[in-house]
Amino acid sequence: MPYSKSVEQAVRRPTPVGSTTKAAPSVGITVYGCEHDEARLFEEMALELGVAVIVTAATVSTSNAALAAGNRCISIGHKAPVSNPTLEALSRAGVEYISTRSIGRNHLDVEYARRLGISVGNVSYSPDSVADYAVMLMLMSVRDAKSVIRRTDVSDYRLSEVRGRELRDMTVGVVGTGRIGTAVMNRLRGFGSRILAYDTRPTVGIDYVDLDELVQQSDILTLHTPLDAGTHHLLDRERICRMKRGAYIVNTGRGSLIDTEALVSALERGDLGGAALDVVEGEEGIFYADCRTRPLGRTLLSRLQRMPNVIVSPHTAYYTDHALRDTVENSIVNCLRFERDHRG
Prior knowledge:
Elements: E1 11-13, E2 28-31, H1 36-49, E3 52-55, E4 73-76, H2 84-92, E5 97-100, H3 110-115, E6 119-121, H4 127-142, H5 145-153, E7 171-175, H6 179-191, E8 194-198, E9 207-208, H7 211-217, E10 220-223, H8 237-242, E11 248-251, H9 260-269, E12 274-277, H10 300-306, E13 310-312, H11 321-341
Parallel strand pairs: 2-3, 2-4, 4-5, 5-6, 7-8, 7-10, 8-9, 10-11, 11-12, 12-13
Antiparallel strand pairs: 1-3
């Protein structure tokens, strides 16, 4: 399948099932924001599942919404927000279903889409990708890995003044016990950590406490809950101030789960031991871009990055080959399910 770098280059590829020649499939999907490795997988999965696809590297916008004409279903990435005018343009093009290749749906207005007659579905993928990464960030935080690596990069091989800590001696508070949160807890059991959890719908056999108690008892707080109106700034200034002195925060969920200004203030005061953030408020337009020649100024992100006890990575916890295959396959399956349920 040709990988299209622009709308003009986008190509419709009918994909017959099996080795014999058949008519073009009746189900079509337009795939926006598709990277090279995703394009290869979409070709492979389309052949297996019997769909026709249009693939473009461009993120969905008002200027390319017409590329979806003739297809009721589209697949989009999570790296760029989808504006309401874009949703309107998609509706005019006949789109009735959007499958976002992410767990979160906060990059578009789901309710506005619904009012336009467009359903929005997310995908599941291997929870191990994010769970592995979250535990890695915990270990890097409690062993002061950022400072160690920075020193050795300039040939300073002295040990840190402060010794690291072992996970078996720490209480880890897990906020959100869905597939990813549960996978994190499974890993932590191997380290011998004491595990506490908070969720509005407890489901697994673990010690659940209310959020304020979790915040007060945790040496490490790791966030794995979806972002919505009820969880925006779930970790607000008051809760951050209640945390143990020297505690760590790990966030591989969504940046706005944390009041970032309050977090920066607590870190600058020395109240917290550190933070490891794979997601940050205001990351849009910065993460996934080369900003080496683009001054960020004294933003909260730049203040975080200057701190020796803060690790920032560009929303990459999900970024594994296994998770990519799951994401592509489930995005196609979501579209096929919608078509099956809305025949006629």
